[in-house]
Specification:
Membrane topology: Single-pass type I membrane protein
Shape: globular
CATH superfamily of the domain at 587-851: Ribonuclease Inhibitor
Largest sheet: 31 strands, mixed
InterPro entries: Leu-rich_rpt, Leu-rich_rpt_typical-subtyp, LRR_dom_sf, LRR_N_plant-typ, RLP23-like
Protein name: Leucine-rich repeat-containing N-terminal plant-type domain-containing protein
Helix content: 10-25%
Strand content: 15-25%
Structural class: alpha/beta
Distance between the termini: 110 Å
Radius of gyration: 37 Å
Pfam families: LRR_1 (PF00560), LRR_8 (PF13855), LRRNT_2 (PF08263)
Number of strands: 58
Family: Belongs to the RLP family.
């Protein structure tokens, strides 16, 4: 019986196999002919391709003998075979869209059933929107190209349109919108609507609108009145983006927050200025609210407690003040809360205890919050991001932090936290990717066998003690792209294994201000493209390392590197190089003629370099050049004339000779600091130097310059203003983003060595306040121009050790910010002006023709013969001049002097701010 049953099974199987094999060709034929391109439409697509330059080969599958429904980016209807969609998705091997040049052909009109046309990220060179698109009446989805010019009115013919995205540099009115009765999604971001005063009534005529994006449209102010009742008829609107405009809060609140209960998403970032009105009380449907980067003042309004549906709230970078209200803890659906960059204060534990367990993203950085981190912070077990950086938090990091097992980013930098960070805090944080404990007083101390459960991408531990040995736990980390362990008290070599950990990903490496010693290896294969490397202020020695072809920033100053600059020749792109304060020798290698144009900031100061300064090409982009205190010789480099972006140039303490070129003021219009101190320069000061209207520091001292002081110094605009410019602070490398999205620009820590009261001093943080002219120790003749008294912003003026003649300008006392004035060892004569008495530090020594205080008590001719009739009795002398007067004068001096100067002695921050 069983055998018979099995025999039947085998027969059935064989029969089905035969039937299946017979059907396979038919099925294959059916599948092959189910969707077949219509020839007319294939030819239209080929014409479309013909007018394009396909940079990435995206259209390589578009061949005339093939079924166009199988082409890349084409979709057809399964039944009618008509082309229904033309879409250009991202390239499979990257995150970017394909690139094309050429024009969009009107042959697309042949695609009569086309309902989906997406040409977004389709950078075709054209100056006009293709008007024929307004006749493609089947379109339901249109995402346009970023053309210039006006949007054609013909778009109003597309009555079936449901989705329209025309973000670009167009200008338009909105009269064509009223016929688009099916439109649900509209994005006109970056379209210039500045002249469309009726933009709100025009949009209100589209009753089906659900999603509206008007980012950066330069929208005119909203004018609400009873004559426009349609303004409120947005019954279907649920998503609204008005970001990056400039609108008054009153008009926005009156419109937006009187919409129906359907509104759920509102983006008003970079749009508003003023206080938050009580406009949120009736908008309980809102789940997403972004009001970041505005000028909103006041406290967080109590009306927010009614926004029970809110899951995302971003009010970062405003001017909010006061405490964080407790009612935020009652918003039970809130997942993201960002209040960063405000002026909020208060005790953090009082805030945290009222927060909610479902919160995933909490950012309260950049405020004035104080107190300690609450011990029960581990209760927020759903947190992915916790950012408490840049506050005034104190105390230690609670061990309960280890319960945040979902935590991916922990930012605690720039507070006043202290204590030991051990594996007890971190052993359960397996999801952690970004760790910032920098600029606190932490000590990171892991046991020798600890293997972290996480793989960090960002390691920010600046100012955290980890030494003296190099941290062994780093050996387990293989995915980091940036690491900062500056000021970590490491007194060790960088182990060889470190350079192999993250060589293809490393974007930022900062081990500065330690005591790291040893020789750096060949870095050509150890670093990724465009990294930022800072190993300054250590004890590294040996030659400069070989570098990869493209390195964004290299800071090796204050080490003991020796040898030549030859190893830099491997780099083709090196915008920021600082190897100052080392033991480098030799001349500029020939390669600097080529890589010199890549420098944006170059600092080789305080080495032993010789020879002439390298020539730069016409593409020079130098902003800062510091070659101070070397032995460079030759005349002033003419090739520097092409560097028209200069803001800082210091060639002091070298062996340059020749004249100061006449073109210097015309070709360096942005110069803020010019120091040619202590060279062998001669000739006159060119009058073109007065064209440097931004110049704040001019030092031509210790040369052989002759002639007279230019009378045009009053044209140095920056010195005629008491407030300092910030031009020096703006010097950065050219901005670039890494593949991970990190910004790789690096701010220049610009400094200047200035002779101040006979002592060379370095100024950094207060450099923008320093305005000085030093022309001392030259061969200048003539008088002090009266125009000099217009430089009311000067804090130091030194023209000593010259051959200046004549008298001191009578109004020199109006330079009331002068802290140092040195006119000594000249040939000045005449009376010292009384107005100069208010100046702080004055040197007149060596001018034999001068008289008057403080040099002499009197001047010739001061003895006046008194009229006997006006001489009274001694009894009629001024009764105020008594013994008590002199006692009061003495006490006033004591208390006045020590009340001011004593404060500087005991108040360190005042001394620093006042130089």
């Amino acid at each position: 019986m069983r055998i018979a049953f099995q025999l039947k099974q085998h027969v059935f199987f064989l029969v089905m196999l035969v039937i299946g094999s017979m059907m396979l060709p038919a099925l294959a034929t059916f599948e092959g002919t189910k969707i077949k391109c219509i020839d007319r439409e294939r030819q239209a697509l080929l014409k479309f391709k013909e007018d394009l330059v396909d940079v990435d080969g995206f259209l390589s599958s578009w061949e005339s003998h093939q079924n166009c429904c199988k082409w890349r980016g084409i979709r057809c209807d399964n039944e009618t075979n008509h082309v229904t969609a033309l879409d250009f998705p991202r390239l499979a091997d990257s995150a970017r869209w394909p690139r094309f040049n050429g024009k969009i052909s009107s042959s697309l009109l042949e695609l009569q059933r086309l309902n989906y046309l997406d040409l977004s990220y389709f950078p075709i060179n054209a100056t006009k929107f293709p008007e024929f698109i307004g006749h493609m009446s089947s379109l339901k989805y249109l995402s346009g190209v970023e053309f210039e010019g006006a949007i054609p009115q013909q778009l109003g013919n597309l009555s079936k349109l449901q989705h329209l995205d025309l973000g670009g540099s167009y200008s338009t009115n909105l009269d064509w919108l009223y016929t688009l009765h099916s439109l649900e999604y509209l994005d006109l971001s970056t379209v210039n609507l500045s002249q469309v005063t009726n933009w709100l009534p025009a949009l209100a005529k589209v009753p089906s609108l659900r999603e509206l994006h008007l980012r950066d449209c330069d929208l005119p102010e909203i004018t609400l009145s009873s004559s426009h009742p349609t303004m409120m008829n947005f019954s279907s609107l649920s998503v609204l983006d008005l970001s990056e405009n400039s609108l008054s809060p009153h008009s926005i609140y009156s419109w937006v927050f009187n919409l129906s209960g359907s509104i759920s998403y509102v983006d008003l970032s970079e749009t508003l200025q003023g206080s938050i009105l009580d406009a949120f009380r009736n908008i309980s449907s809102l789940s997403y609210l972004d009001m970041s980067y505005n000028q909103i003042e006041g406290s967080i309004p109590d009306a927010f407690r009614n926004m029970a549906s809110l899951s995302y709230l971003d009010m970062s970078y405003n001017k909010l003040e006061g405490g964080i209200p407790r009612f935020l803890g009652n918003l039970s659906l809130l997942e993201t809360l960002s209040l960063a960059g405000n002026e909020l204060y208060g005790d953090l534990p009082e805030v945290m205890k009222n927060l909610f367990q479902q919160l995933e993203h909490l950012d309260i950085s950049g405020n004035r919050l104080n107190g300690s981190i609450p011990k029960d912070i581990g209760n927020l077990f759903n947190l992915n991001v916790l950012d408490l950086s840049n506050n005034q938090l104190t105390g230690t990091l609670p061990e309960s932090i280890r319960r945040l097992s979902k935590l991916e980013s922990l930012y605690l930098g720039s507070n006043h936290l202290e204590g030991i960070i051990s594996e007890v805090h971190l052993f359960n944080l397996s999801m952690l990717r970004e760790l910032d404990l920098s600029f606190n007083s932490f000590q990171v101390k892991f046991s020798s066998g600890f293997v972290p459960p996480f793989q960090l991408q960002s390691i920010q531990l600046a100012n955290c003690k980890q030494g003296p040995q190099f941290p062994e736990w780093i050996r387990n980390q293989h995915n980091f792209s940036d690491i900062d362990m500056s000021r970590a008290e490491i007194s060790d070599t960088i182990p060889a294994w470190f350079w192999d950990l993250s060589s293809t990903k490393l974007e930022l490496l900062n081990f500065s201000y330690n005591q790291i010693y040893g020789v750096l290896p060949d870095l050509t294969s150890k670093l990724s493209s465009f990294p930022v490397v800072d190993l300054s202020s250590n004890n590294l020695e040996g030659p400069l390392p070989l570098l990869p072809p493209s390195i964004w920033t290299l800071k090796l100053f204050q080490n003991r590197f020796s040898g030549s600059l030859e190893s830099l020749c491997n780099s083709r792109d090196l915008p920021y190089l600082d190897v100052s304060d080392n033991l480098l020798t030799g001349k500029f290698p020939d390669c600097f003629q080529h890589i010199g144009s890549s420098f944006n900031i170059l600092n080789l100061a305080n080495n032993n370099l010789t020879g002439s300064i390298f020539p730069v090409g016409p593409e020079c982009r130098l902003q800062s050049l510091n070659l101070r205190n070397n032995s460079f010789d030759g005349e002033f480099p003419q090739s520097l004339r092409s560097c028209r972006d200069f803001q800082v140039i210091d060639l002091g303490k070298n062996k340059l000779f020749g004249g100061v070129p006449a073109w210097i003021g015309d070709d360096w219009p942005s110069l803020v600091l010019l120091s040619l101190r202590s060279n062998g320069l001669y000739g006159e000061i060119p009058s073109s130097i007065c064209h440097m209207t931004r110049l704040q520091i001019l030092d031509l001292s210790l040369n052989k310059i002759n002639g007279t002081t230019p009378k045009c110094f009053n044209n140095l605009t920056a010195m005629t203003q008491e407030q300092g410019l910030t031009a020096i602070d703006t010097i950065t490398s050219y901005g670039k983003k890494t593949p991970n999205g990190h910004n790789l620009w690096w701010k220049q820590d610009e400094s200047a060595i200035i002779m101040w009261k006979g002592v060379e001093s370095e100024y950094k943080s207060t450099l923008e306040l320093v305005k000085t002219i030093d022309l001392s120790s030259n061969h200048l003749t003539g008088g002090i121009p009266n125009e000099t008294t217009s430089l009311v912003g000067l804090v130091s003026l030194n023209i000593s050790r010259n051959f200046i003649t004549g008298s001191t300008p009578p109004h020199i006392g109006q330079l009331h910010l002068l802290d140092f004035l040195d006119l000594s060892r000249n040939k000045l004569s005449g009376v010292i002006p009384m107005s100069i008495a208010q100046l702080t530090y004055i040197a007149y020594k060596g001018n034999l023709g001068l008289c008057g205080k403080p040099v002499t008590d009197t001047c010739p001719g001061d003895e006046v013969i008194l009229d006997p009739e006006k001489i009274g009795d001694h009894d009629e002398e001024d009764t105020l001049i008594t013994t008590g007067f002199y006692i009061s004068l003495g006490l006033g001096f004591v208390f006045g002097f020590w009340g001011t100067c004593g404060s500087f002695l005991f108040k360190k921050s005042w001394r620093h701010k006042s130089f």
